[in-house]
Amino acid sequence: MITVALAGKPNAGKSTFYTAATMADVDVANYPFTTIDANRGVTHVRTDCPCLAREQRCGNENCEDGKRYVPIELLDVAGLVPGAHEGRGLGNRFLDELTNADVIVNVVDASGGTNAEGEPVEVGSHDPVEDVTFIEEEMDLWLAGIVADNFESVERKSRSPDFDLDEALADMLTGFGATEADVAAVLRGLDYPEDPKRWTDDHRETLARELRAHTLPLVVVANKADVAPPENLDRLREAAEVPVIPATADGELALRRAAEAGVVEYDPGDEGFEIVGDLSEQQEAGLESIRDVMSSFGGTGVQTALNDAVYGLLDRITVFPVQDAAKWTDGTGNVLPDAFLLPAGSTPPDLAYAVHTDIGEGYLHAVDARSSRRIGESHELSEGDVIKIVSTAGP
Description:
Elements: E1 3-7, H1 14-22, E2 39-48, E3 63-64, E4 67-76, H2 91-97, E5 103-109, H3 128-157, H4 165-173, H5 180-188, H6 201-215, E6 218-223, H7 230-239, E7 244-246, H8 249-260, E8 264-265, E9 274-275, H9 281-297, H10 302-313, E10 316-322, E11 340-343, H11 348-355, H12 357-361, E12 363-368, E13 373-375, E14 385-391
Parallel strand pairs: 1-4, 1-5, 5-6, 6-7, 10-14
Antiparallel strand pairs: 2-4, 3-4, 8-9, 10-11, 12-13, 12-14
Helix pairs in contact: 1-8, 3-4, 3-6, 4-5, 5-6
């Protein structure tokens, strides 16, 4: 399962974002380090369900009238403060937790109502642009420190007659969330000495920065956008080199709780909602203020951020494996039972292996269930494809 990690300084709204996205109970408070132990939960990205092409909706528990929600893991860890890479605050624990994430959502207090330490200040008195750059800097310097601390092992290996620098660096870095392919891709774009003894701190830091950017891409959530000065959002968009999504995690949480209570009709990612239950004047006024924000930003931003992280930065597509190509069902008659998030460019054998290793190893051929046509091994799958895999390991 894809893991999205929430990063940010304390009190930026990470735990509220997490609660809104997962509807799990966590501590949410207006003081630094509310989160100490990491919270792990399940949330979803949203896409169109293939059942929209059929006369009836599929009835899957993750489908709401053709809005398909695909599970991903969401990780909320302790906030970062300046100097986190040196162990200040809960920095080392936070940064260690990130190594297994696939993508990072950097939650920024766009209102400027919390200082660099996460302490409440007057709205607009802190520059949120600083929070974008400092998060990236702390992560890069943390990884640079790991590279520096472990570089001696690379130098020792260089004494061997069959020494290969790329292999030695890959061995060192795969323990910190990078794959051999990640390391190879980064090294192809760098100029560096073949002799590790000639490497400088600048070489090691450049490697760390490029590797972090490659293995832990970021999307910025401009949280508290509903109370942020408009110029803050403009400046964040101009300053950040990554996508910036205006959001109100508080608004999303209020809507999800109202939907659970049956007083509004709202599905995560909708651009609006409908009031269907009895509310007090105060409650209705609160929801209407959220509606105003949603009309400005096209929603609360929470679902948009998750979708941008997975479908955008990670470049994933959703593919639906079935056993019956005519009925789009599994062996027990469930319509469109599963959805897999695969890298763009994946082929039918890739899907087979994602379903199960045995299915992949026994792969024979595949059928596009939409067209009922057999497709080749090298066929690139697309978003929303419904595919029947024929394998010696199963139906």
